[in-house]
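General statements about sequence and structure are easier to judge against a single worked case. No coordinates are needed to read the tokens, only the vocabulary itself. The sequence in question and its structure tokens are set out directly beneath this paragraph.
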Amino acid sequence: MSNTNSPLQSKDQIKSSNINLEYMDFIGKINLRIRDADTDVLNKVSAYLGYELPKNSGEVSTNDESRTAWLGPNEFLIQCAEDKKDNFIEDLNRNLNDCFYALTDVSDYYITIRLSGKKSIDVLEKGCPLNFKEYLKNQNTCAQSYISKGTVLIDRLSEDQVFDILIRWSFADYLWDWLSDSCSEFVD
């Protein structure tokens, strides 16, 4: 489903050999909070998702259906296709109904901007304090930080420099303009 209400729908995407900037169609995002010591809940969620939940800061677990980022000792962000989000929520609620957990649909909270290309880290380093040689150096890693003045979750999707940047809707227009301007020197 394409989100026609996106504040980024009228923005010009950037595509070049060095850098690409695009916004992603609506992606389902589900915040899951569970006790980190509750192995029963961890096992139920892992069995449903088809992979082990990430165990450490900066880890991401994934398969063809969903992607789960570790946000904190008891907090995860599950991303999936928007048209499958309701099924994920219903199934997880059913599987965990006798457990202690919190499941919140945060799809409307975040917009996803994809930055890719061999100069993407150069662009990110202009406004993000992360040490990209230490954090986000490998595929399936993530970090919460900020870019310029916007708080973000940066998720590295591949060994190539492909990053999904999740930002609140209210800051999406600002961050897009900042990224677009920062990309301009690398566009060929």
User: Anything to note?
Assistant: The two ends are 32 Å apart (CA to CA). The chain has a mean pLDDT of 94. Residues 27-105 form a domain with the Alpha-Beta Plaits fold (CATH 3.30.70.1520). The longest strand covers residues 150-158.
